[in-house]
Protein backbone atom coordinates (compact mmCIF):
# COMPACT_ATOMS: atom_id res chain seq x y z
CA UNK A 1 0.00 0.00 0.00
CA UNK A 2 1.36 3.40 -1.02
CA UNK A 3 1.58 6.03 1.72
CA UNK A 4 0.52 9.59 0.82
CA UNK A 5 2.18 12.28 2.95
CA UNK A 6 0.79 15.85 2.65
CA UNK A 7 2.68 18.90 3.88
CA UNK A 8 1.00 19.87 7.16
CA UNK A 9 0.44 16.35 8.48
CA UNK A 10 3.94 15.23 7.50
CA UNK A 11 5.72 18.22 9.03
CA UNK A 12 4.20 17.58 12.48
CA UNK A 13 6.47 14.55 12.86
CA UNK A 14 9.78 16.14 11.90
CA UNK A 15 12.82 17.33 13.83
CA UNK A 16 15.78 19.20 12.35
CA UNK A 17 18.48 17.42 14.34
CA UNK A 18 16.97 14.02 13.56
CA UNK A 19 17.05 14.93 9.88
CA UNK A 20 20.76 15.78 10.16
CA UNK A 21 21.39 12.38 11.69
CA UNK A 22 19.49 10.79 8.79
CA UNK A 23 21.61 12.72 6.27
CA UNK A 24 24.79 11.55 7.99
CA UNK A 25 23.54 7.96 8.00
CA UNK A 26 22.62 8.18 4.33
CA UNK A 27 26.18 9.12 3.44
CA UNK A 28 27.50 6.04 5.20
CA UNK A 29 25.72 3.91 2.59
CA UNK A 30 27.07 3.26 -0.93
CA UNK A 31 27.41 6.43 -2.98
CA UNK A 32 24.21 7.51 -4.68
CA UNK A 33 23.58 7.20 -8.39
CA UNK A 34 21.86 10.38 -9.57
CA UNK A 35 20.42 11.81 -12.80
CA UNK A 36 18.43 14.89 -13.79
CA UNK A 37 16.10 15.25 -16.78
CA UNK A 38 14.70 18.58 -18.02
CA UNK A 39 11.80 19.06 -20.44
CA UNK A 40 10.74 22.48 -21.74
CA UNK A 41 7.73 24.08 -23.42
CA UNK A 42 8.46 27.74 -23.91
CA UNK A 43 8.98 29.17 -20.42
CA UNK A 44 7.44 26.12 -18.71
CA UNK A 45 9.71 23.42 -17.29
CA UNK A 46 9.43 19.85 -16.05
CA UNK A 47 12.39 18.73 -13.93
CA UNK A 48 12.83 15.13 -12.84
CA UNK A 49 15.58 14.50 -10.30
CA UNK A 50 16.30 10.84 -9.60
CA UNK A 51 18.49 9.08 -7.05
CA UNK A 52 19.18 5.49 -6.08
CA UNK A 53 21.05 4.53 -2.91
CA UNK A 54 21.63 0.83 -2.44
CA UNK A 55 19.86 -0.26 0.73
CA UNK A 56 17.85 2.96 1.10
CA UNK A 57 15.74 2.95 -2.04
CA UNK A 58 14.93 5.12 -5.01
CA UNK A 59 13.37 8.57 -5.36
CA UNK A 60 12.08 10.57 -8.29
CA UNK A 61 11.37 14.21 -7.49
CA UNK A 62 9.22 15.70 -10.24
CA UNK A 63 8.83 19.49 -10.31
CA UNK A 64 6.85 21.67 -12.68
CA UNK A 65 7.73 25.36 -13.03
CA UNK A 66 5.09 27.42 -14.82
CA UNK A 67 6.08 31.13 -14.52
CA UNK A 68 2.69 32.30 -15.81
CA UNK A 69 0.73 30.67 -13.00
CA UNK A 70 0.97 33.47 -10.41
CA UNK A 71 -0.86 35.76 -12.81
CA UNK A 72 -3.72 33.25 -12.77
CA UNK A 73 -3.72 32.94 -8.99
CA UNK A 74 -1.98 29.56 -9.08
CA UNK A 75 1.38 28.43 -7.60
CA UNK A 76 4.35 28.69 -9.95
CA UNK A 77 5.95 25.45 -8.70
CA UNK A 78 4.26 22.09 -8.26
CA UNK A 79 5.39 18.52 -7.92
CA UNK A 80 5.73 15.40 -5.86
CA UNK A 81 8.41 13.03 -4.60
CA UNK A 82 7.91 9.35 -5.40
CA UNK A 83 9.70 6.87 -3.15
CA UNK A 84 10.31 3.32 -4.39
CA UNK A 85 11.28 0.22 -2.42
CA UNK A 86 14.90 -0.85 -2.76
CA UNK A 87 14.14 -4.59 -2.87
CA UNK A 88 11.24 -4.87 -5.34
CA UNK A 89 10.86 -1.38 -6.86
CA UNK A 90 7.28 -0.93 -5.66
CA UNK A 91 5.95 2.58 -5.03
CA UNK A 92 6.31 3.06 -1.27
CA UNK A 93 5.21 6.66 -0.78
CA UNK A 94 4.26 9.92 -2.46
CA UNK A 95 5.52 12.85 -0.40
CA UNK A 96 4.57 16.49 -0.82
CA UNK A 97 7.15 18.22 -3.01
CA UNK A 98 7.29 21.41 -0.93
CA UNK A 99 7.74 19.46 2.31
CA UNK A 100 10.77 17.59 0.98
CA UNK A 101 12.27 20.71 -0.60
CA UNK A 102 11.90 22.81 2.55
CA UNK A 103 13.44 20.26 4.90
CA UNK A 104 16.10 19.06 2.48
CA UNK A 105 17.34 22.57 1.71
CA UNK A 106 17.52 23.95 5.24
CA UNK A 107 18.54 20.59 6.72
CA UNK A 108 21.46 20.33 4.29
CA UNK A 109 22.76 23.70 5.48
CA UNK A 110 22.25 22.91 9.16
CA UNK A 111 24.01 19.56 8.80
CA UNK A 112 27.05 21.34 7.36
CA UNK A 113 27.00 24.12 9.96
CA UNK A 114 27.02 21.61 12.81
CA UNK A 115 30.28 20.30 11.37
CA UNK A 116 31.90 23.51 10.12
CA UNK A 117 30.70 26.42 12.26
CA UNK A 118 32.14 27.16 15.68
CA UNK A 119 29.93 25.44 18.29
CA UNK A 120 29.86 28.68 20.30
CA UNK A 121 28.42 30.71 17.39
CA UNK A 122 26.02 33.27 18.87
CA UNK A 123 25.04 35.54 15.98
CA UNK A 124 23.50 34.26 12.74
CA UNK A 125 22.84 36.50 9.75
CA UNK A 126 20.16 35.38 7.28
CA UNK A 127 20.66 36.96 3.85
CA UNK A 128 17.35 36.87 1.99
CA UNK A 129 13.90 37.28 3.52
CA UNK A 130 12.03 34.74 1.43
CA UNK A 131 10.51 31.33 2.04
CA UNK A 132 13.89 29.63 2.35
CA UNK A 133 14.93 32.23 4.94
CA UNK A 134 12.01 31.17 7.11
CA UNK A 135 13.10 27.52 6.95
CA UNK A 136 16.69 28.51 7.72
CA UNK A 137 15.57 30.40 10.82
CA UNK A 138 13.76 27.29 12.06
CA UNK A 139 16.63 24.92 11.25
CA UNK A 140 19.41 27.05 12.71
CA UNK A 141 17.31 27.76 15.81
CA UNK A 142 17.29 24.01 16.47
CA UNK A 143 21.02 23.61 15.91
CA UNK A 144 22.14 26.80 17.68
CA UNK A 145 19.40 27.44 20.25
CA UNK A 146 21.26 30.27 22.02
CA UNK A 147 22.01 32.25 18.88
CA UNK A 148 20.68 35.71 18.04
CA UNK A 149 19.39 36.23 14.48
CA UNK A 150 19.52 39.18 12.11
CA UNK A 151 18.04 39.31 8.61
CA UNK A 152 19.10 41.39 5.62
CA UNK A 153 17.21 41.70 2.34
CA UNK A 154 17.83 43.76 -0.75
CA UNK A 155 14.40 45.32 -0.16
CA UNK A 156 14.46 46.73 3.40
CA UNK A 157 10.68 46.55 3.77
CA UNK A 158 10.81 42.78 3.32
CA UNK A 159 13.62 42.47 5.87
CA UNK A 160 11.62 44.50 8.37
CA UNK A 161 8.50 42.39 7.83
CA UNK A 162 10.50 39.15 8.17
CA UNK A 163 12.10 40.41 11.38
CA UNK A 164 8.75 41.35 12.89
CA UNK A 165 7.26 37.96 12.00
CA UNK A 166 10.11 36.00 13.55
CA UNK A 167 10.95 38.32 16.43
CA UNK A 168 14.50 39.03 15.29
CA UNK A 169 16.58 42.05 14.25
CA UNK A 170 17.00 43.34 10.72
CA UNK A 171 19.99 45.03 9.10
CA UNK A 172 19.90 47.82 6.57
CA UNK A 173 23.53 47.56 5.49
CA UNK A 174 24.97 44.19 4.43
CA UNK A 175 28.59 45.34 4.58
CA UNK A 176 28.13 46.17 8.26
CA UNK A 177 26.03 43.09 9.08
CA UNK A 178 28.40 40.46 7.66
CA UNK A 179 31.45 41.18 9.87
CA UNK A 180 29.24 41.15 12.99
CA UNK A 181 27.95 37.60 12.43
CA UNK A 182 29.43 34.23 13.36
CA UNK A 183 27.38 32.42 10.70
CA UNK A 184 26.14 33.94 7.44
CA UNK A 185 23.49 31.86 5.65
CA UNK A 186 22.51 33.23 2.26
CA UNK A 187 19.51 32.29 0.11
CA UNK A 188 19.12 34.82 -2.68
CA UNK A 189 18.53 34.61 -6.43
CA UNK A 190 21.61 36.67 -7.19
CA UNK A 191 23.65 36.33 -10.37
CA UNK A 192 26.14 38.99 -9.28
CA UNK A 193 27.91 38.21 -5.98
CA UNK A 194 26.49 40.16 -3.05
CA UNK A 195 28.81 38.72 -0.37
CA UNK A 196 32.30 40.19 -0.53
CA UNK A 197 35.14 38.13 0.84
CA UNK A 198 36.84 41.28 2.10
CA UNK A 199 34.05 41.56 4.70
CA UNK A 200 34.67 38.11 6.20
CA UNK A 201 36.19 37.75 9.65
CA UNK A 202 38.33 34.93 11.12
CA UNK A 203 36.22 32.11 12.55
CA UNK A 204 33.11 32.74 10.46
CA UNK A 205 31.07 30.09 8.67
CA UNK A 206 29.51 31.02 5.33
CA UNK A 207 26.55 29.00 4.05
CA UNK A 208 25.61 29.57 0.38
CA UNK A 209 22.25 28.24 -0.78
CA UNK A 210 20.66 30.46 -3.41
CA UNK A 211 22.69 29.76 -6.56
CA UNK A 212 21.45 26.75 -8.52
CA UNK A 213 22.01 27.72 -12.18
CA UNK A 214 25.35 28.00 -14.03
CA UNK A 215 25.03 31.80 -14.13
CA UNK A 216 24.27 32.35 -10.43
CA UNK A 217 26.66 33.35 -7.63
CA UNK A 218 26.26 34.81 -4.14
CA UNK A 219 29.94 35.18 -3.11
CA UNK A 220 32.84 36.78 -4.97
CA UNK A 221 36.27 35.39 -5.88
CA UNK A 222 37.88 36.85 -2.77
CA UNK A 223 35.44 34.91 -0.61
CA UNK A 224 36.44 31.62 -2.21
CA UNK A 225 40.15 32.39 -1.93
CA UNK A 226 39.97 33.45 1.74
CA UNK A 227 37.79 30.56 2.91
CA UNK A 228 38.20 26.80 3.12
CA UNK A 229 35.54 25.54 0.72
CA UNK A 230 33.25 22.55 1.33
CA UNK A 231 30.30 21.16 -0.65
CA UNK A 232 27.52 18.67 0.01
CA UNK A 233 28.50 16.72 -3.12
CA UNK A 234 31.32 17.18 -5.62
CA UNK A 235 29.16 15.53 -8.28
CA UNK A 236 26.22 17.96 -8.08
CA UNK A 237 27.97 21.29 -7.49
CA UNK A 238 31.33 21.76 -9.19
CA UNK A 239 30.29 21.50 -12.83
CA UNK A 240 26.68 22.60 -12.49
CA UNK A 241 26.35 25.68 -10.29
CA UNK A 242 27.89 29.06 -11.05
CA UNK A 243 29.02 29.55 -7.46
CA UNK A 244 31.87 27.13 -8.17
CA UNK A 245 31.65 26.49 -11.92
CA UNK A 246 32.57 30.10 -12.79
CA UNK A 247 35.60 30.49 -10.47
CA UNK A 248 36.82 27.02 -11.49
CA UNK A 249 36.58 27.99 -15.15
CA UNK A 250 38.44 31.28 -14.70
CA UNK A 251 41.18 29.73 -12.55
CA UNK A 252 40.33 31.52 -9.31
CA UNK A 253 40.23 28.12 -7.58
CA UNK A 254 40.90 24.53 -8.61
CA UNK A 255 39.01 21.36 -7.78
CA UNK A 256 41.79 20.52 -5.36
CA UNK A 257 40.74 23.59 -3.34
CA UNK A 258 37.41 21.94 -2.49
CA UNK A 259 38.24 20.47 0.89
CA UNK A 260 35.54 17.80 1.30
CA UNK A 261 31.94 16.73 0.86
CA UNK A 262 29.61 14.59 2.96
CA UNK A 263 31.10 11.41 1.52
CA UNK A 264 34.45 12.27 3.18
CA UNK A 265 33.21 12.86 6.74
CA UNK A 266 36.62 12.89 8.42
CA UNK A 267 37.61 15.94 6.34
CA UNK A 268 34.24 17.68 6.71
CA UNK A 269 35.23 19.77 9.73
CA UNK A 270 36.91 23.00 10.73
CA UNK A 271 40.50 22.72 11.86
CA UNK A 272 40.91 25.94 13.88
CA UNK A 273 38.81 28.59 15.60
CA UNK A 274 39.99 31.31 13.21
CA UNK A 275 39.43 29.34 10.00
CA UNK A 276 36.81 30.77 7.62
CA UNK A 277 34.67 27.91 6.37
CA UNK A 278 32.43 28.20 3.30
CA UNK A 279 29.82 25.61 2.36
CA UNK A 280 27.99 25.38 -0.95
CA UNK A 281 24.57 23.79 -0.54
CA UNK A 282 23.85 22.13 -3.89
CA UNK A 283 20.92 19.99 -2.75
CA UNK A 284 21.22 17.05 -5.13
CA UNK A 285 18.62 14.35 -5.69
CA UNK A 286 20.37 11.99 -3.26
CA UNK A 287 19.55 14.46 -0.48
CA UNK A 288 15.92 14.51 -1.61
CA UNK A 289 15.93 10.72 -1.24
CA UNK A 290 17.51 10.83 2.23
CA UNK A 291 15.09 13.53 3.38
CA UNK A 292 12.00 11.86 1.92
CA UNK A 293 13.00 8.56 3.51
CA UNK A 294 13.39 10.32 6.86
CA UNK A 295 9.93 11.89 6.44
CA UNK A 296 8.41 8.49 5.68
CA UNK A 297 10.15 6.83 8.64
CA UNK A 298 8.95 9.63 10.95
CA UNK A 299 5.41 9.22 9.56
CA UNK A 300 5.42 5.49 10.32
CA UNK A 301 6.91 6.06 13.81
CA UNK A 302 4.18 8.59 14.61
CA UNK A 303 1.44 6.26 13.39
CA UNK A 304 2.70 3.53 15.73
CA UNK A 305 2.88 5.83 18.76
CA UNK A 306 0.08 5.57 21.33
CA UNK A 307 -2.29 8.53 21.55
From TrEMBL:
Pfam families (UniProt xref): OCD_Mu_crystall (PF02423)
Example of a GO cellular component annotation carried by this entry: cytoplasm
InterPro entries given for it? Answer: NAD(P)-bd_dom_sf, ODC_Mu_crystall, ODC_N
Name of the protein in its database record: Ornithine cyclodeaminase
Q: What is the protein's species of origin?
A: Antarctobacter heliothermus
Amino acid sequence: MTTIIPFDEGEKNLDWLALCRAIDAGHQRPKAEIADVFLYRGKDTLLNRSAWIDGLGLAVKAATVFPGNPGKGKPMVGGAVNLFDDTDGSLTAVVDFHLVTKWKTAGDSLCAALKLARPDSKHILIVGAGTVGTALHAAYSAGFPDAKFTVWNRTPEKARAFAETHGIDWAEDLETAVPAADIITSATMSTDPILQGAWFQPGQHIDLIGAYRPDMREADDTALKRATVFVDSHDTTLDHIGELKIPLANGTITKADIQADYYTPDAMRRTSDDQITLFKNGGGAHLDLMCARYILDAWHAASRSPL
